[in-house]
Amino acid sequence: MRALKQSLAVAAAACAMAVMPMAHADNDKMDVNKFVTMSDSDKDGMVSKAEMMKMMEKMFDKHDTKKMGKLDKQQTEAFLKELMKSGG
User: Fold this and answer.
1) How many CA atoms lie within 13 A of 33 on its CB side?
2) pLDDT tens across 13-51, in order?
3) Cβ(23)–Cβ(30) under 8 Å?
């Protein structure tokens, strides 16, 4: 379980680094309000690290269709597209 959480943390960081240049290049596609609404489980208007990781884990699991705890290139691409679409 700890390894999975570490993998998700690394995946989240990698996604953020990959997504940020794209988000800055096309601000019209970035919907921060949608992202906060999706992630903010305690409805305090902010996204905690725990809330962020919970959302990332849920998205990761959705794209890990083979339930291997890993995403191949195609699954990673779909994960990143969904992340961008949700405002991440």
Assistant:
1) 1
2) 555 555 544 444 454 456 788 888 889 999 999 999 999
3) yes
Provide the CA 30 distance to its chain's centre, in angstroms.
13
Q: Which residues of 58-82 are buried (b: 16+ CB within 10 A; e: fewer)?
A: ebbeebeeeeeeebeeebbeebbee
Q: Residues near 75 by Cβ (< 8 Å), separated by ≥ 6?
A: 63, 64, 65
Q: How far apart are CA 81 and CA 33, in angstroms?
A: 17
Tokens representing residue 57 in the block: 């884990």
Tokens describing residue 20: 């940020």
Encoded tokens for 37? 């609404």
pTM score of the predicted model: 0.61
Tally Cβ neighbours within 10 Å of residue 87: 17
